[in-house]
Amino acid sequence: MTERATDPADPTEHHRATDPGVVVVVAGAVYDRGRLLAARRSAPAELAGRWELPGGKLEPGESPEEALVRELREELGVEAEPGERIPGEWPLKPGYVLRVWTARLLSGVPRPLEDHDELRWLSRRELDSVDWLDQDRPAVAEAALRLPQAPADGAHD
Ligand SMILES: Nc1nc2c([nH]c(=O)n2[C@H]2C[C@H](O)[C@@H](COP(=O)(O)OP(=O)(O)OP(=O)(O)O)O2)c(=O)[nH]1
After folding, report:
1. 88: which of 8, 22, 42, 102 is 20 to 30 A away, CA to CA?
2. Is residue 27 in contact with ligand 1, taking CB distance under 6 Å?
3. Pocket flag, ligand 1, residue 56 (CB < 6 Å)
4. What top-level class would CATH report for the domain 23-141?
5. Among residues 103, 69, 66, which one has the least CA distance to residue 83?
6. What is the residue extent of each domain of the chain?
7. pTM value?
8. Alpha-carbon Rg of the chain, whole angstroms?
9. How far apart are CA 113 and CA 154, in angstroms?
């Protein structure tokens, strides 16, 4: 069984997830050095070849942040730390909504282990260079607004 949302219409809804009507998909706007991670789906056929934010369905008893950490570990082989939720909620297919959290890589190099066949790190000006799933575009636009500045060339820590 998959965990479901209470009020898919309420963008202020952060953590309640009990409505039997809607499946919550939690995805990560994973940032590293001023770039956003994009993942190309390998399945199902109708989504294959399109790009998305990595993540997956909230499982019963999990917080969204826990789900995100689990999904990024399973799909990409990395450890990540969730940050803020990106305000908003985006309908996917009927009965599914997308919620997005920012995330920062703690360790590992992302690899397309599950559900994806290619990964790319995109700078702000490269964000339109991949064919995002239509339903992800508003979330990606919001994620872009929060893209941390890349360290300046030659900058010292
Ligand atoms: N992860 C993710 N899924 C998305 C996005 N946009 C979008 O339409 N989807 C769809 C694809 C899938 O139908 C559904 C998420 O399912 P999934 O297959 O990624 O989730 P999962 O890992 O929990 O799936 P499962 O294999 O355990 O069933 O939402 C997105 O940005 N990220």
Report:
1. 42
2. yes
3. yes
4. alpha beta
5. 103
6. 23-141
7. 0.86
8. 15
9. 34
